[in-house]
Amino acid sequence: MELLSLAVESIFINNVLLAMFLGLCTFLGCSKEVNTAHGLGLAVIFVLAITTPVNWLLHHYLLRPGALEWLGFPEIDLSFLTFITFIATIAAMVQLVEMIMEKYVPALYISLGIFLPLIAVNCAILGTSLFMEQRKYDFAEAAVFGFSSGIGWYLAIVAFAAVRQKLKYADLPKGLDGFAINMITTGLIAMAFMAFSGIKLTN
Amino acid sequence: MKLTKTKAYKVFKAPLIEANPVSVAILGICSSLAVTTQMIPSIVMVLAMTFVLSCSNVVISLLRHVIPKNIRIIVFLVVIASLVILADQLLKAFLFDVSKQLSVFVGLIITNCIIMGRAEAFALANDAWLSFWDGVGNGLGYGYILIVVAFFRELFGSGALFGIQVIPDALYELGYVNMGLMLLAPGVFVVIGLLVWVQNKLTGNS
Hints:
Radius of gyration of chain B: 19 Å
Radius of gyration of chain A: 19 Å
Oligomer: heterodimer
Structural class of chain B: mainly alpha
Largest interface: A-B, 46 and 44 residues
Shape of chain A: globular
Number of strands of chain B: 2
């Protein structure tokens, strides 16, 4: 039940994109069409669901202060290596996911195309791992948090792409079109998502 | 030769307004909007970002003949991540309170697309001196957006600047209320949208 509550919170209330501003570059760059947004969103869910638990394991058994106790070095603190380890895991995982997909699900691989490697530098992925570390989740929570953050990102980008497709035909004042109106639209979507705040499944 | 005529100056000045990395090239807004509720963390964030950006530009520019082309992204990531660790440790040592407030967003400088973008587009093709100024210029161009946004958010959201109350109590007694929306996520998006609109109007591009 607590895990379900965490999932609802990270999908709707603390949406990784609309409340934490993570993954905005990709969000603005790849949301011209709903289909691309859909494919990219699925890839992000996939990568997030894998990297967050893997980073949890690395952090728990290698990096945190006292983590090397099982090797007989209880006094070593490697937590300053967190950033570089996390980003290396993410880059490696994206590469691995790419190779597995190419071998076993070539159709999905082709439809994702260039977006798959680009996920490595998506701040939503690194951000989720860093939040997971900072909030001291346990393994199950980390897995749920990663997966549901991905779903939240997916929902946001698909909703935004749908609005943006309609927006193409709008007659906007000069200077407001493009980036400016995209930001304001995102603001409105973020406001809509705020309607979920305060929902709690457990007391 | 006058200072304003040198090439380094031109490289430094371009990204401030007309080729601004955030409002014109639409890069690197992701990692740091959450820190703009107040001026002080925003300024620290800008300093950290400018430090990482100029150093990574210099390092990558010096290494540009050695880096193999097909693994360059990994090399960039390693250079950037090491510099970010350095910046993070410095903040933790000297500005612990602000470092707590910035939390994960210092780490997220690694995935800021501006750094990767400048490494790829500028540092790989220019010498270290020019790359340094390009880094500083882009860092400040990014910083200007961040600080303007933080200014409006702190002023309207909590009636203060740099943590000091600037809106007089008399105004509150007349019924003035702080705009809570400014402190929440949607406020940022709207402020940036309006800022870019004004900038487009002034510079005449769209």
